[in-house]
Design goal:
By secondary structure, the chain is mostly loops. The protein is 6% helix and 0% strand. It has one helix spanning 29-32. The protein is globular and about 35 Å long.
């Protein structure tokens, strides 16, 4: 099973380099390897937290857009 780093889906990622707005010199391995989810403060994160770069579907898999009036 291939698991992607939470960083790959975060809007704060900077290009394809090792850093992001929270950790411009490189993301700590604990976060990059998903050992810790970055939805809470983490030492040195400058106040940034994980935020999805793309819309996230609701838990039941339903689209979040209003499709009744389309």
């Amino acid at each position: 099973m291939i698991v992607s780093s939470q960083c790959a889906l975060c809007k704060h990622l900077i290009g394809i380099g090792p850093g992001c707005k929270a950790f411009p010199d490189g993301v700590p391995k604990e976060l990059a390897h998903n050992k810790v989810w970055h939805d809470k403060p983490y030492p040195g994160d400058q106040g940034y937290r994980f935020e999805p770069a793309f819309p996230v579907p609701e838990e039941d898999g339903a689209e979040t857009a209003d499709t009744e009036n389309s």
